[in-house]
Specification:
This protein is mostly beta strands. The chain has four helices and twelve strands. The protein is globular and about 55 Å long.
Length: 170
Amino acid sequence: LVDSTGVTGIYVTHDQKEALSMADRIAVMNDGQVAQLGTPAEVYRRPATRFVADFLGEANFLNGELSAGSNAVETSAGNVAVLSDLAGPVTCCVRPESTKMVAGESPGGLAATVVSNVYLGDFHQTVCKLATPGPVEWRVTELPGDSEVHAPGTAVTLTFKPEDVAVLDK
């Protein structure tokens, strides 16, 4: 109705997928305040805060330090290439569908071990544990048949593009 009449409409929902699929612009609210305003793609791919990232779907988080002028965040799991002008303590946010996984160790990625696999029909999700001092889990979502399914205990390397990393001020 809104599309056919050209009228501006405001729709309030707690269903994130519904909001992402219907809206031209989304305002994510937190404690009565606008946490982020933007297109569905902007707020999903480039969340402004951890709250927005968590609220709009699954996300992987890794804390680290970004030096001024650097293009990599130093983390306990290794360096993460990013496109950001922030500096200081930051959190890297990567959506599960942006992560690729290959067996064994490869340069330029994060070393991990497969913990579990779940086949969900339209996609396959793998949970990995990063090779870090603390327990950091990383989820990988892939279409069935897009890659090899790795058994629990398999050493893998997780990779993603710098443009797929949202750098959040810690």
